[in-house]
Amino acid sequence: MNVLDAPAIKPDGTLRDELPPWRRWASLTVLSLALLTVVMDLTVLNVALPSISAELHPSATGQLWMVDAYSLILAGSLITMSGLADRWGRRRMLMIGFALFGLASLLVLWADSTAAVIALRALLGLGGAMIMPTTLSMLRVIFTDNRERTLALGVWAAVSAAGAAVGPIIGGLLLEHFSWHAAFLVNVPPMVIALIAAAVLLPESRVAVTGRWDALSSLLSIAGVAALVWSIKEFGKHFVTDGLANAPAWIVLIASIGLLTAFVLRCLHRPDPLLDVRLFTRRQLTAGILAALFSMVAMGGGLLLLAQWLQLVEGFSPLAAGYRLLPFAAGAIVTSLFARWLTDMLGARVVMTLALLLPAAGFALLYLAPTPLGFGWVAAAMGLQGAGAGALAIGSAMIMSGSPQDKAGNAAALEETAYDLGNVFGVAVLGTISAVIFAGRLHSPIPGADNSLAEALEIAEQRHLPELAEAARSTFTESLVQVGLVGAILLTVAALVVFALTPRGLDLDIQH
Fold first, then answer.
1. What is the pTM of this model?
2. Which range marks the domain in which residue 400 is found?
């Protein structure tokens, strides 16, 4: 039982009685704290990986799985966990997720092998899949007033965007004073707080369903999405050396298409589908999901390349580089908090288009910046990219208002899956383009020097070749500039598509 009396639940999962204002906003604080912790965990391992490698000596494959286990399990489990939350209870699912995430983080004290770290990362991904979509569907339940809900979604969007930028800072701070275990242990206190607060504050919410749990659809979605994510990552990792001649990636990609096709067909022919794929016929929902996908392409690829530029070209430490990523978080916070005001003034259609044109302008700044590229231009570009991510609060509002109340879990799962896939696409596509340009322009006769900036700098240090290091840094900056042009074009096209899909005169205060 909830410590506070929970209002009765309607069959569609909504509350019969509205929560008092203090409890609504306190609930948002709890959900935001948990979301911030989960999002930070997406990036904090990148900072900790060198320390983990120095102690555990994992193979190259082991290092990749340490990074990939989290995102593969997270992306693959989102639809299933959201469906279970709708049936078992969203508050219950959140509390299980909080407990699992905190426990997996605590178990790192006994992790003394590569396999153990990979297993813990997989558990963290499962816990994250329980938490992320459920926080979004809970906001739909708690905030019944559409204007309040848009503001709450703005806070949610700001926390989600800022978490990715804050993760490296937290990781850098911890690693300067503690061992790599601290990058995991930092998750424990917020999860304990969230678990206790959820028991006290959050109401239970579930959807009354009559059909049995569709285990086969669940397996198809988990395997299909995880296989899709893995194949994209695999193409990106080996594109410079193998191009598209990557047999394992092709086999898994084809398998993922088959699995996801079977999943969609099964959902279309069941009266009680795990995921109502017909939601995509709602134009505003589809527009919001596409905006989330392409915004994360910009965020995932942009943050990866800019973090490398700050550390390997400009020579900043991980912590100092993390601080210099803060313009991204600042831009996201400003636009997310003013998103509703902008929508009232300009309309949802224009704001959603701006959510993609702003990061497009950020990429364009990188391309148009004078040579040599300076941090002032980079900071402005990051601010614009963050501003676009923050404006996606309206995208979340469009998705939530564009789906029936009893499909809130489905809509949340689709949005979170779009965020995850967008991040994977961004890292793979923009990262690959940068790597191809780097390899094509470095023109070094030394084998391996054109594989990556990090390898070129290592070879230059070992062989005492400062001219190679300088050429590699200059070439990487050139590749970053060219990626700016690609990103600007990609996001401009995406903005035009979202503009065309978003209904003219869309009113977010009306449930569609």
1. 0.82
2. 282-512
